[in-house]
Automatic annotation (TrEMBL):
The keyword Cell inner membrane does not apply. GO terms for molecular function: flavin adenine dinucleotide binding; monooxygenase activity. Gene3D superfamilies: FAD/NAD(P)-binding domain. Keywords: Oxidoreductase. It comes from Zoogloea dura. The keyword Membrane does not apply. InterPro entries: Auxin_biosynth/cation_transpt (IPR050982), CHP04046_FMN-dependent (IPR024000), FAD/NAD-bd_sf (IPR036188). This is MSMEG_0569 family flavin-dependent oxidoreductase. It holds the Pfam family Pyr_redox_3. Transmembrane segments: none annotated. Signal peptide: none annotated. PANTHER family: FLAVIN-BINDING MONOOXYGENASE-LIKE PROTEIN (AFU_ORTHOLOGUE AFUA_4G09220) (PTHR43539), FLAVIN-CONTAINING MONOOXYGENASE (PTHR43539:SF78).
Length: 442
């Protein structure tokens, strides 16, 4: 394995660290940055390489959805000359690797953490592929994209129809000749659909309930308007949906070719076949819910509501900005299609783009709900010494992005520093620690 930081015998020679960080992506590296700022000894375990998921789990034309100016890792804002652009996959890897070189974290690559539990001494026991360690605090910065979701009924498809998850999609040429069905209209689904469509492939798309967003509106990038309006600082506690905001799909748009919004109605006019949510598979026949029209309308409703919020902000601030015409629907499906014969349509491959689910089975601590999701308040678990970072809506809308991870990492480092200081002085108060509501720890 080619690594930025070859395994350090010195780091692995110790069996105890005050803090262990699991994950060497932007979240784990940001944690290391602030732990170093606080003078806290720690080790970072990365089972692959720094920036592995960006390097290995994205398709060839992948790029950021948010502009480069939002890349604000701690002490290392986007260093390039195109702040309004959208970094491609390899550029994202370069950015994260450059950040890692800048901060020189105590990281060991190629070491996987397989088990975490509470030992008899009260310390956390950490089992890794490089041996056994103990720690007082562990920060889980592995992200929540562990297990690709593919429905059980996918097994009913004929074996000659190739199935892959979006995490394994690379380019149109990697799929067999024939028509392609993409299942899912979140960010990955619509961008893969466009990738295939631009390559001249005949594409079918199952449209789910994901919302969409403007790209440029009234003379300015919509993300810039939203930044000024404080949207990225909206906390999950202040969100109208509360904790349920974490379950919502991100708005779809793209940074491809300089960035543009994605209107699925336009793609339908260009020949992409649209269907509602996939409900079942019987042999080569796909069955859909009658929700295509509703899902398209709902996505447009969110799109229009964002434009209206920007309009209100412009008016309230007295900003001189060009006025744009009212939104109009370019296409409507008429009757929602309810079934599709893959054989008759010539579909030879299916790309599942319906997301991931987390896998925290390696953490044997009582900090998860009945669905296996971690419980925390701004990343601080009700289990002493356990923390999470880098998850969507961990604290704000920006938490799962390059934009907000630094603030969350700074907060966790301050909580850990306060707890370590309190432990040294024998105090029971935990400086800077979050207090979870009783319902959250039940």
């Amino acid at each position: 394995m080619n690594t930025l930081f070859p395994q350090s015998t010195q780091l692995l020679s110790r069996s105890h660290y005050p803090v262990v960080v699991v994950g060497g992506g932007q979240a784990g590296l940001s944690t290391s940055y602030f732990l170093q700022q606080n003078g806290i000894e720690h080790i970072v375990f990365e089972k692959n390489r720094v920036a592995h998921s960006w390097r290995a789990d994205r398709w060839d034309t992948f790029c950021l959805v948010t502009p480069n100016w939002q890349c604000r890792l701690p002490g290392f804002p986007y260093p390039g000359d195109d702040p309004q652009g959208f970094m491609l996959k390899d550029q994202i890897v370069d950015y994260v690797e450059a950040f890692a070189r800048r901060i020189a974290p105590p990281i060991v690559e190629g070491v996987a953490v397989s088990h975490v539990t509470r030992g008899a001494s009260g310390r956390l026991e950490v089992t890794t592929s490089a041996g056994h360690f103990t720690t007082d605090h562990i920060v889980v910065a592995t992200g929540g994209y562990d297990i690709p979701i593919v429905p059980a009924y996918a097994e009913r498809l004929p074996s000659h129809i190739q199935q892959i998850h979006s995490v394994n999609y690379r380019n149109p040429e990697s799929l067999p000749p024939g028509e392609v069905l993409v299942v899912g209209s979140g960010q990955s689904g619509v961008q893969i659909m466009e990738d295939l469509h631009l390559a001249g492939r005949k594409v079918h798309l199952c449209v789910g309930p994901a919302p969409r967003s403007p790209r440029v509106y009234r003379g300015r990038e919509a993300t810039e308007w939203l930044m000024d309006m404080g949207y990225y600082e909206l906390t999950v506690e202040r969100h109208p949906l509360g904790e349920k905001a974490r379950e919502k799909t991100n708005h779809y748009m793209t940074g491809r070719d300089g960035g543009h919004e994605i209107d699925l109605r336009r793609f339908a006019r260009e020949g992409v076949r649209l269907y509602g949510s996939l409900a079942n598979i019987q042999g080569a026949t796909l069955e859909f819910l009658p929700d295509l029209s509703r899902n398209l309308d709902d996505a447009d409703e969110v799109y229009v509501s964002i434009r209206k919020d920007i309009d209100k902000y412009i008016a309230a601030q007295g900003i001189d900005a060009p006025v744009e015409p009212e939104f109009e629907k370019l296409w409507a499906p008429g009757v929602d299609p309810l079934s599709l014969d893959c054989e008759a349509a010539g579909i030879t491959s299916i790309v599942w783009a319906i997301g991931f689910r987390p896998d925290y089975r390696w953490i044997e601590l009582p900090s998860f709900d009945g669905r296996g999701n971690p419980k925390y308040q701004r990343g601080v678990s009700p289990v002493p010494g356990l923390y999470f970072l880098g998850l969507p809506w961990l604290h704000t809308w920006g938490s799962g992005r390059f934009l907000g991870v630094a603030d969350d990492a700074r907060h966790l480092a301050e909580v850990i520093a306060g707890r370590l200081a309190a432990a040294e002085t024998g105090e029971t108060a935990e400086a800077g620690a979050a207090t979870l509501p009783q319902a959250a720890v039940a």
